[in-house]
Each structure stands twice: as structure tokens, then as C-alpha cells.
Amino acid sequence: MVVFLIRALIFLGSAALGLWIASLIVDGFTVTASGFLVAVVVFAVLQSILTPWFLVMSRRYANALTGAVGLVSTVAALFVATLVGEGLTISGTSAWVFGSLTVWIVTMLGTLILPLIFLRNRVEKKRAVEA
Predict the structure, then answer these.
(1) Is the pLDDT of residue 123 over 70?
(2) pLDDT value at residue 131
(3) Would you kindly state where each structural domain of the chain is located, as residue ranges?
């Protein structure tokens, strides 16, 4: 249960980092300070729900698109997050393309690298207890 909570916090953190970095480097990708938390939670929840669903659908109907599931679910989650509240606005085609790519890359790297950093201590402690 603790590992699940740590992974959920890591995903929320990587989503926050992805949205923040995209707002810094992509013109037309804006996250307001007042709506940042709502945008992060909406994006992260939708991303975690949509990714498995898109994966199942791509395997069933379009197996060649399986590799694009993360990017497609990122775009879909960003779209819905822009509709919920005023925290996230994406204006223009280039903002959608480069913003989605930025958020996808940052969240992907965050969910790959951050568990290694934060869960390594837990694994080392468990091994020390077993030894």
C-alpha cells in the first residue's frame, strides 16, 4: 500500500513538473497559479485512467498504434483538463503539439526515474532487515 501511494505521488509530481515545464517553454501553453493544482490532479487522474483504456483499444483494433498510447492519452487528458476550470489553457496548434510532447516526455521520464530514486531507499532497508 505504501509503494502504491509513493507511486501515485510520483505520478502527480511528474504531471505537475510536466505541466510546469511546458508552461515555461511552450508559447500558448498557460497554467495559472490559482488553477495549477486542479489542472495537475485532473490531468494525472485522466492520464492514469485513459492510458490503460487506450492500450486495450489499440491492441484490439489498431495494434500498430500501441506505441503511441502514452502520447494519445496525454493529448486526451490535456484536452479534458483544459475544459475543467480555468487553470490550463492551450491556444494554437503548435502549443498543442509541443505542449503535449513536452508533458508526455517529462511525465514519462519522471515516472521512470523518480521511482528509482525514491523507492531505492525502501528496497535497501528491506534488504537490510532480511539480512
Answers:
(1) no
(2) 65
(3) 2-130
What is the Cα–Cα distance from 11 to 77, expressed in whole angstroms?
14
For residue 38, the tally of other CB atoms under 10 A from its CB is 16
Whether residue 26 contacts residue 99, with contact meaning beta carbons closer than 8 Å, is answered with: yes
Task: Please give the sequence-ordered ranges of beta strands (E in DSSP) within 55-102, or none if there are none.
Answer: 88-90
C-alpha to C-alpha distance for 55 and 68, rounded to whole angstroms: 9
Tens-digit pLDDT profile for residues 62-118: 777 777 888 889 999 999 999 988 889 999 999 999 999 999 999 999 888 888 877
Q: Nine-digit cell at 2?
A: 505504501
**Residue 106, CA distances (Å) to 12, 16, 73, 98 in order:** 12, 10, 14, 12
Place of cell 509530481: 13
CA-based radius of gyration for the chain:
16
